[in-house]
Design brief:
- This is ParA family protein.
- This protein has a single domain, classed as 3-Layer(aba) Sandwich (Rossmann fold), CATH 3.40.50.
- Helix content is about 40%, strand content about 15%.
- It has nine helices and nine strands.
- The protein has helices at about 15-30, 55-65, 90-95, 110-115, 135-150, 170-185, 210-215, 220-225, 230-255; strands at about 5-10, 45-50, 65-70, 70-75, 80-85, 100-105, 125-130, 155-160, 200.
- Helix 1 (about 15-30) crosses helix 2 (about 55-65) and helix 5 packs across helix 6.
- It is globular, with a radius of gyration of 18 Å.
- The model has no long low-confidence stretch (mean pLDDT about 95).
- The structure holds adenosine-5'-diphosphate (ADP) and magnesium ion.
- Magnesium ion binds next to helix 1.
Length: about 260
């Protein structure tokens, strides 16, 4: 079975591509089924950014080795990861049978690798802050996505709001409307909706939590950083994964029926 490829993209830096790549890799590999049994899914992390943010975090994690949970030292499960900023697709093809999921962290939509991933990823996540985001940069990213869709029409594309202040409801709504307008301008053409082109804005949002996310440079993921203090990151990522799963199933069921 080929792996499901989840790629992160956005022309802008600092929006949370590496952060989401790392946390989603962990969330997938620790996923449980409906009977709460570990699914033991194998998720490979491919770092396709020459700045190697996610590789550095993985290395820091390896050095850290583990953490104390309720006074008991627990070793981390190692993260399978590789730095590959060229020929990503041929690499993915080579190893796809060995993994359930392959998560690809990219440099940005303007880079060669992020153009490349839009042509073969099954799922493309575009993290974005809802506040004062660069409209032109988002439009440019989405135009690249649209080009990629010519080769890859079944790709699920989801904008994920990150660094969200849940209390700023008016601002959040405004940001959502602005992003929606940009998406519609690019994808709602020729009598089709953005949804017809598999492009959505996630209902699930990731909160702005600098105290937890800053711990990631030390090698923790956000769930470990928040352990014993807040369940929010876990709840948010669970919701996000569920939403991705539902949308992904819808696309693939429709495809099977056709
Ligand atoms: N939800 C969040 N809350 C607080 N800080 C965040 C959040 N998501 C990301 N960050 C921080 O924002 C910075 C940029 O994130 P990063 O994932 O490296 O972005 P990118 O890979 O898109 O350049 C990092 O310092 C990270 O810790
Ligand atoms: Mg990055």
């Amino acid at each position: 079975m080929a792996a499901i490829v989840i790629a992160l993209a956005n022309g802008k830096g600092g929006v949370g591509k590496s952060t989401v790549a790392l946390n989603i890799q962990y969330a997938i590999s620790t996923m449980r089924d409906t009977d709460s049994k570990p699914m033991n899914l194998n998720a490979l992390l491919v770092d396709a950014d020459d700045q190697q943010t996610s590789t550095k975090t993985c290395n820091a994690r390896a050095k850290l080795g583990g953490m104390k949970v309720k006074g008991v030292y627990q070793p981390f499960q190692p993260i399978e990861h590789i730095f590959k900023d060229q020929d990503v697709e041929s690499y993915v093809k080579m190893v796809t049978e060995r993994h359930d999921f392959i998560v690809i962290d990219t440099k940005g939509a303007e880079s060669d690798t992020s153009r490349e991933v839009t042509t073969f990823a099954n799922i493309l996540l575009i993290p974005l802050s809802p506040y004062g985001f660069d409209k032109q940069a988002l439009a440019d990213t989405l135009k690249i996505v649209k080009k990629g869709q010519r080769f890859n029409p079944d790709m699920l594309v989801m904008v994920v709001f990150n660094k969200v202040d849940k209390k700023a409801t008016a601002k959040n709504r405004e940001g959502r409307e602005e992003v929606n307008a940009i998406i519609n301008e690019i994808f709602a053409v020729n009598g089709k909706t953005a949804a017809d082109n598999n492009v959505f804005i996630c209902a699930a949002e990731l909160s702005y939590k600098p105290t937890f996310y800053s711990e990631m440079t030390k090698g923790y993921n956000v769930f470990e950083a928040a352990r014993g203090v807040s369940l929010d990151p876990k709840t948010e990522y669970d919701k996000l994964l569920q939403e991705i799963q539902t949308r992904y199933a819808q696309i693939n069921n429709a495809q099977e029926a056709a």
